[in-house]
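Bumping with the actual sequence this time:
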Amino acid sequence: MSEADPKPPVEAAAVATPPDIPAAAEPKKRPWRLILMLSVPLLLAAFGGYMWLTSGRYVSTDNAYVQQDMVSVAPEISGTVGEVFVRENQRVRRGDLLFRIDQRPYRIALANAEAQIRAAEVQVAQASAQVAGTGADIQGAQANLQYAEQNFARYEALVQRGFTTRTAYDNAMHDVEEARERLANARSAAVTARSALTGGGVAEQPSVQAARVARDQALLNLARTEVRAPADGIVTQTDRLQTGNAAVSGVPAVTIVRSATTYVEANYKETDLTNMYVGQPAEVELDAYPGVRVHGHVQSIGAGTGSQFSILPAQNATGNWVKVTQRVPVRIAVDADPGRPLIAGLSADVTVDTRDRPRQQVAVRH
């Protein structure tokens, strides 16, 4: 191609400037990262502050158990169990009849006591009649003595005049002596008869009173054949209470658990009692009911450690003595019904808030 040939024109579209490439977008700011970075130290600081403030405020123990007062019911007389009116775990009220001992021997004893009263009254009547009889005997003896003395005086005068014998005189003197002896015997019998009686009527005589006391004892024993509940509660250990068994006086036959007196006995270490006072709030968690929290308060603190009241107290006066942290029983009163039955002996965890110190308790300790 010659130089004269014109060059083809360049199209404007072909030489057009390409569109501008957009600049790289700047990364967006994420504020939650900053918040997270700041919140973690704040949370740690808050948790540390909380632990520092509450350090030593709560004292806990898992050596705690639900307790209820129990009444061992024992008959006051011995005999054979005739009837049983309760069953195991039955709820009873005070005065309800639990069981009855065979009453026949005690009814016989009552009849015998009543017969003794009548016999004593007969004896008193006989003694009264005897006293009245001794009065007549005394009067007769006095009359005989008076006659004998008069007769003796006549014989004495006749002897002095010589109109009678000495033998008749001696016989008259002997009659006087016999009359005096009979009078003395009558008076002694009257004293003996009156000694069997005291002032007042038949009912006030000692023999009658003793017989009536025996009758009252027989009535009491008969009433004791019916054994009743001494308190409200739940009957347990009725396996010993069977018809035909021998009931021995003073030996427990059945037990009543007084559910109205439920409390928790927590055995705290002696080092946990530094800031514990009566009246402080407590929280109880029972192993039998997970998630159930029972609110209460410290009712009392034991007067001695558990080992102090054991059958064999520890003897520390030895050369190889090792110090052992002692446990003190603390009674926790239950303030509200947890809605579940609190059975005696259930295991529990107890936490006491020692922040509040009742003023009266502080005054007592100081």
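The tokens above came from a reply further down the thread. The chain has three domains: 71-103+224-247, 105-221, 258-315+322-365.
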